[in-house]
Amino acid sequence: MIQERNIITNILLTFVTCGIYGIVWLISINDEVRFVTNDPRLQTGGMTILLILVTCGIYSFIWAYNIGNALTNYYRNQGKHSEDLGILFLVLSIFTANLVNYCLIQLILNEIAREQYNQQLSN
């Protein structure tokens, strides 16, 4: 089960901790997207951080693209229309900080968490 998180709180914690909480946030959203989508192409959160460090940040572009594609496929499997989030996240990671991607991914995860919660209530 994924948990809904306050995006503003996560942004503030990332700034207050000089980016350390951003690493924790990346790990949590990575693992939650991996759990929701069951996409075998996604690494664990810890492995993602390791690959980003070893490649001096280059893997973050690959990660953004893969996680966007995983969410796009999830939406399409649910019968919902979705633009190609992989390209969007890749472009955003190239031209902005990844913090924007984290916020968008968290927004999507919050929506999925609410849908799952409402499904449990209706059953």
**Could you give the order of the helices and strands?**
HHHHHH
**Low-confidence regions:** none
Strand content: under 5%
User: Any idea how many domains?
Assistant: 1
Q: Kindly, what is the distance between the CA atoms of the first and last residues, rounded to a whole number of angstroms?
A: 16 Å
What's the gyration radius in Å? 14 Å
* Largest sheet geometry: none
Helical run tally? 6
Shape summary? globular
SS class? mainly alpha
Give the integer mean of the pLDDT values. Answer: 94
Residue share in helix = over 70%
Count all strands and give the number.
0
Structure description:
With 123 residues, the protein is mainly alpha-helical. The protein has helices spanning 7-16, 20-37, 45-54, 59-77, 85-95, 98-122. The chain starts with 6 loop residues before the first helix and ends with a helix. The model has no long low-confidence stretch (mean pLDDT 94).
Q: Strands, helices and their partners?
A:
Blueprint: H1 7-16, H2 20-37, H3 45-54, H4 59-77, H5 85-95, H6 98-122
Helix pairs in contact: 1-2, 2-3, 2-4, 2-6, 4-5, 4-6
Which key features would you list for this structure?
123 residues; mainly alpha; 6 helices; 0% strand; globular
How would you summarize what this structure contains?
The protein has 123 residues and is mainly alpha-helical. The chain has one domain (7-122).
